[in-house]
Every structure is written in structure tokens, then in C-alpha cells.
Amino acid sequence: MAGLNAKHAGTGNSICSEALGMPLAKGNAMAERPAKGPKALDGEAASRLAEMSRVVIVPAGRQVMMEGAPATELFSIAEGIVSIFKLMPDGRRQITGFLYPGSFFGVTFNVSEAYAYSADAVTEVKLQAYPRRNFERLLDEVPGLRRSFIAAMADELTEAQDRILLLAHSSASQRLACFLLALSRRQADPAAEAVDKVFVPMRGSDIADYLGLTAETVSRVLATFRRKGIIGGDRNGNTEIRDRAALEALAGTLARGV
Questions:
Q1: How many other CB atoms sit within 10 Å of the CB of residue 31?
Q2: Which ranges constitute the DSSP H helices of the chain?
Q3: Which of 99, 111, 133, 147 could cross-link to 103 by cystine, CB 3.0-4.6 Å?
Q4: Smallest Cα–Cα separation from 167: which of 122, 213, 124?
Q5: How far is CA 125 from CA 56, 95, 132, 133, 204, in A?
Q6: From CA 16, how far away is CA 112, in angstroms rounded?
Q7: Using CA atoms, how far apart are residues 79 and 57, in angstroms rounded to an integer?
Q8: Please, are residues 21 and 7 in contact by the beta-carbon 8 Å criterion?
Q9: Number of neighbouring beta carbons within 10 Å of residue 204
């Protein structure tokens, strides 16, 4: 099971955020979990989880878990950003999501008891790690918790279908417009709908592997956006959306097509 996070009850370009796996919920409290994850945990579940957990700090760029390795623990994110990905038979990497504070990942119910995907730290991350066996017992002992996780898995399947459609019927410019708009909404504080100054900590190769593009295409399209005055920024990941209407026009065309 990939990340467990929340849908945003917005309109227009919300499909970009949902289909690209960019939950819009703000804050890092477990009760503010984004829509595709379990609903807010009750006091007993939260307390039991805290008792069984340990804190793990992972530097940026380091691996958190590896596909195929024994699934001895699962994780929730307290601080930072994690990418989850699959390795293709030819060695290429497909990033399937970027996860934020409040997300669970590493949950698996497969027979082999192995992780179904890999995860890396995009930024330095602070994680809560939970022993898998203890967590599974908690699912049996706390009423409703297992149902919440099953519901979250169903939401993820729906999101995966949306994402397949989005990537199959969009240009590189549309995908990057959606990506930037999703980050803009994700990083806004609770009082704002979106922000124009966006932090993009992902490398160009990460964005490419996420959007099904090449790093060269990502660089070229972003350069075009800068040349047209749609975005600005520096080389440290600080990006400014200068023409939101242009980005929304691209994303709006995509949303209507999907």
C-alpha cells in the first residue's frame, strides 16, 4: 500500500492534485490526513501507535526502504518529503508518488511479506517506524481501523486510474503545469487557496520519473515557461508562479479532457 493521504474538495484543477498523487491537505497532524488515507485516528489508535513507534531520521537522497526487502516495518512521515517508486525491468524508475507529513507508507498485506515498492527521502525526513507484526495486531484489536485502511486502498486504486488517464492524454507542458499548480495548492497555508512562491525540492530527474517524461524534456519545458514569463525562480528549488492564468489554462484543458 502506498502513501495514505487526502482529497481536496476543490474544483477546476483539483484533478491535477489528485491524479498526480499530490494531496492538498495542509499541516502535519495525523487528524489532518489527506483524503485518500484513513480518517482521523481515534485516541486509542493514536496512543497505541505512538507507544509502538520509534523515530527514524533519513538524510535527503537516502533510501528509506527497498522493493522486495522483508516488510518488517511501516512508516508515517512527521517531517519532510518521501518519493515512492518502482523499478522497471529495463532498469528505469517510475516514481508513483511524493508523500508528505501525515502519510503512511510501507503497508503491505501481500503473501510474500515484502515491500511492493521502494522509497527515498527527497528532503531530510523524520519518520515514525512501526513494527509490522504489532501494527497488524492493532488492526485486529482496534475497531474500525482495518476498515479505514481497506477504504484507503480503494481510494488509491481510483486515484491510480485517474493518474493513468492523465498521463496518457496530456502533453509535457500540461503535466508540468499540473505539477506546479498542485505544489502551489499543497504548500498554501490554511487561510489561502494557493501560493505563488513554491518550493520544488525534487530534482529534475525525479520530476521526470514522476510525470513519465525525460529529464531533458522537463528542463526544456520549464525553460519555456521561464522564457514566456509564466514562472521565475532560482536554482535552489524556489519557484515563483508569475502567470497563474497560463498554467491554469493548460491544466484546465487537461482537466476537461480527462
A1: 11
A2: 14-19, 43-52, 132-141, 145-168, 172-186, 204-211, 215-227, 244-257
A3: 99
A4: 213
A5: 8, 18, 20, 24, 20
A6: 34
A7: 9
A8: no
A9: 16
Centroid of chain to Cα 97: 4
Listed range (20-29, 161-170, 213-222, 242-251) with the worst mean pLDDT: 20-29
Cα–Cα distance for residue pair 1/149, rounded to 1 Å: 9
pTM of the model: 0.79
Cβ-contact 212, 175 below 8 angstroms: yes
Kindly report, residue by residue over 46-97, the tens digit of the pLDDT. Answer: 788 888 999 999 999 999 999 999 999 999 999 999 999 999 998 889 999 8
- Three cell numbers, residue 1: 500500500
Domains and their CATH numbers in the chain? 14-162 (2.60.120.10), 167-257 (1.10.10.10)
Query: For residues 106 and 9, what is the distance between their CA atoms, to the nearest angstrom?
Result: 27
- Side chain identity, residue 69: A
